[in-house]
## 1
Amino acid sequence: MSFGSYKTIGAAIKEFQIAYTEANFVQELDFTLSDYFREDLTLMMREGVVDNSEFAICENLIYPVLKEIWKHYRSKFLLWSHQSLNYDENLSGFPEYILARRSPLGKVVFDRPYLMLVEAKQDNFEAAWGQCIAEMIAAQRLNAELDVVIFGITSNGDRWQIGKLEQKIFTKNSTFYTIQELDKLAGALNFVFIQCEAQLERVGDRLVA
């Protein structure tokens, strides 16, 4: 089954036998957005065609915001777009975006995934989370021996929801964020990236030891 076969949160939770909970675990950590980024995004939202298709939403709203945060962490992570992710026949597909460890072999090599992002197509966050949870399970299993927390994001370009998978518990952040409040959104995404970075360093220390 592909990731997209999991159409609801409940279906994914039941299939993989994980617990579901909600809590406000995300903290908004200050992040300085460049003036150029603000002006360009505002221009695109005001003058451009940004939401006439799923591809347009990804390219014009989701990816630019994600990329702006990633640039500050680019020495440690790569941001992959529509990269094949395969664990087994029940967990395979092409997530919209994956934040993965930068491989010591270079940027052409896909390494351990830490964050998955799924577009909420036609504003269907239920289906998006079903797919995202399946992707997070695949990422968790690919990192199985390292026992890391996998983060997930679903977005329709305007609204952004955040979740995490820690061992056998999936937690969805109770508060969602919106591109209309860009600084809060950037702060929330910065928190997620910092958590991924901290885990990367912890895992690195363990592997060295």
Note: The first strand starts at residue 19 and ends at 23.
## 2
Amino acid sequence: MQDAANLAAMAETLGRSADYRVLRRLVPRTEFAVTNGQTTKTGVLLDTETTGLDYSKDEIIELGMVKFDYLPDGRIAGVRDTFSAFNEPSIPVEITALTGITDDLVAGHRIDDAAVSAFVDDAVIIIAHNSGFDRKFAERYWPIFERKAWGCSATEVQWRQHGFEGSRLGYLLHGAGFFHQAHRAVDDCHALLEILALDLPATGAPALGALLEQARKKTMRVWAEQSPFDLKDALKRRGYRWSDGSDGRPRSWYVDVEESALADEIAFLKTEIYLRDVEPRLQTLTAFTRFSVRA
């Protein structure tokens, strides 16, 4: 106990100096803001560890979730429950090196489908730090995730505008003064919860509030089909991404924009890409379809 007290005192002293930054090990907590009788809603943070990046054929080897309550302004009230389970596939060597999950660790394990569904049933929103990845895997295994609203803490909070070096979870934790055991699913969920509880410097509001505000908005997916090949760099500079058509979507460049920016995007395509009037293919996305393979 004395050693711990001495270390804490040294860390406090270093932290007051402009020449040092102190990172503390993240210790998961269950209590955050006091509710004072206010109504809360329930969210679930989700993280998967997989054997690869292809949701259509690679397998989930670990699922971690943290269920939490939050207040109307986005402040996190507290943790209600956690979920952690392994699944047995044959794990590639490179995945073991990244996650520390070995064949022996997952041997004989199966994730209980009914337990997963029961855990997330009352959640208003599912949040992952890369929902474009995790949602596709989760929907393939458990259909309940198709019916849920999703948010992405990596893309739906403008972290750089709030002084962080990037949106990777490790960067965000370091910016908040923490480190943790990365690449284990439930540990990453606890780390993400701590980040979403942060008050953002630019607004003073919790990061979760900013995410929820963005997740509630409709966005428009604009497809630049049959655009000239020699203008692909112009599309990339504007934020367009390439779909190779292998998942049933068009083989085309596309971009997601807010509804208010749609007219400007179509004007860009007319004047800079096609040099004529066009009516591009459009898709309306909400939190219920965004990040899903169904989009």
Note: The chain has ten helices and eleven strands.
